[in-house]
Amino acid sequence: MATTSDIRNGLCIRYNNDIYKVIEFLHVKPGKGPAFVRTKLKSVTNGKVVDNTFPAGRKIEDIRVETHKFQYLYNEGETFHFMNEKDYSQIQLQKNVLDAPELMKEGEVVTIIINAEDEMPLSVDMPASVVLEVTHTEPGVKGNTATNATKPATVESGATVNVPLFINEGDKIKVETTKGTYQERIKE
C-alpha cells in the first residue's frame, strides 16, 4: 500500500475496480482546510481519462509493474504489433492503450509497462520526442512571417503536425510525443 505522497507521473494504481495510470498530479495545500492531491488518471483498460482528488495521506493501492523495451513492428487496423528486444517475443496491443499511435513509425523503440502479477501489458510509453520525415506540405508563402505562422504537414507516420513555414517536404523534424507538436528541424 502507498499513500498520496507516493503519487508520481507514470504510477499505476487500482482505483474503482480498474487499473489507472497517473498522467498528471498536483499537491495542493490551501490556506484553509486540509491538503489534497489533484490527479488526472488514465484507465489502462479503456483509455478513458478521469480527474480525481485524493485527500492528503489517503492510502492508495499501487500496482507492481515492470518495464520492458519493445520495438514497434506494424499495425493491422486497431491492433499494433510489438517485439521484445531481449527475447524477441511478440505481443499485440489495441490502439486505445497507446498514447500517441499516430506518431509511431515502424522500428520505433517504446517502453511497455507490464503488470508484474499477471504479465498483462498496461500501457505504452513513447520516447519524449521522435524524429519524423515530412512527406507532404504546402510551400510557405513568402512574406507571410510577421507572426509565428504555421502550416499543416503530413509526416511519414501519417500524422498531421503544424510546422513553421520554412519546413519543406523531405525535411526531418523532431516532434514532442506528449503534445504532438513541432520542436525543431533536424539537420543531417
UniProtKB/TrEMBL annotation:
Which gene produces this protein?
efp
Quote the PANTHER family the UniProt record gives: ELONGATION FACTOR P, ELONGATION FACTOR P (EF-P) FAMILY PROTEIN
Job of this protein: Involved in peptide bond synthesis. Stimulates efficient translation and peptide-bond synthesis on native or reconstituted 70S ribosomes in vitro. Probably functions indirectly by altering the affinity of the ribosome for aminoacyl-tRNA, thus increasing their reactivity as acceptors for peptidyl transferase.
Origin, by domain of life? Bacteria
Q: Which Gene3D superfamilies match?
A: 2.30.30.30, Nucleic acid-binding proteins (2.40.50.140)
| Family affiliation | Belongs to the elongation factor P family.
Alphabetical list of SUPFAM superfamilies matching this protein: Nucleic acid-binding proteins (SSF50249), Translation proteins SH3-like domain (SSF50104)
UniProtKB keywords: Cytoplasm, Elongation factor, Protein biosynthesis
Asked whether the keyword Protein biosynthesis is assigned, the reply is: yes
HAMAP family the record matches: EF_P (MF_00141)
Task: Supply one GO molecular-function term.
Answer: translation elongation factor activity
Q: Give TM regions.
A: none
Keyword rRNA-binding part of the UniProt annotation = no
Task: Show where the Translation elongation factor P/YeiP central domain sits.
Answer: 67-122
Identification of the protein by name: Elongation factor P
Report the pathway entry.
Protein biosynthesis; polypeptide chain elongation
Q: Pfam families of this UniProt entry?
A: EFP, EFP_N, Elong-fact-P_C
**Which residue range or ranges hold the Elongation factor P C-terminal domain?**
130-185
GO biological process entries: peptide biosynthetic process
Question: Would you name any one GO CC term?
Answer: cytosol
Q: Which organism is it from?
A: Polaribacter irgensii 23-P
Location of this chain's protein in the cell: Cytoplasm
